[in-house]
Amino acid sequence: MSTPANIHPVFERMLQRTDKEALLQQRGCAVWMTGLSGSGKSTIAIALERKLHAAGRYTVVLDGDNIRTGINNNLGFSGADRTENIRRIAEVAKLFVQNGAVVICSFVSPTIAIREQARTIIGATDFVEVFVDTPLEECERRDVKGLYAKARAGELKDFTGISAPFEAPAAPALRLTTAGRGVEDTSQELFLHVVQRINRN
Fold this sequence. Notes:
Blueprint: H1 17-24, E1 29-34, H2 41-54, E2 59-63, H3 64-68, H4 79-97, E3 102-106, H5 112-122, E4 127-133, H6 136-142, H7 147-152, E5 174-177, H8 183-198
Parallel strand pairs: 1-3, 1-4, 2-3, 4-5
């Protein structure tokens, strides 16, 4: 899409990404966590944020529920709305990454195509795809929001894992298995992976 004639970007006059990263002493990136509802994405994301903060790293968490009550509160769950939801999220994440932040994104983002859209917007070198791999039966057992029960009863349409597909990443940067593991274990594994990527040394 071309830039309208009355839009005049000022990017070249602004401080650059390298300036922000030098100040923060880290490389910006987007940690894109994908997995079924109830897989543990949000819980692990919060634990990761705390670990990175304790290590002196600047982070931003973008979570599905929070985003849908704010910037994307006009979107539903149709195919088109899901695509637009991720597009907006990816654009926001890109802005933070370009300012040196470690952006922790926690979204079901169920299809390969929708995640590739995010990767393209953010940039492949800045996109760290993390598959929170939790079996469907375990996600249903947790079901703290009661969503799976509603989906099974036909009250929720196009619910990922029940009436809509989830396409697992073929080659994620990190596959976090959660079966039989606690949050401390999984978040520490993710923390070590992320720290290696954001270190400037």
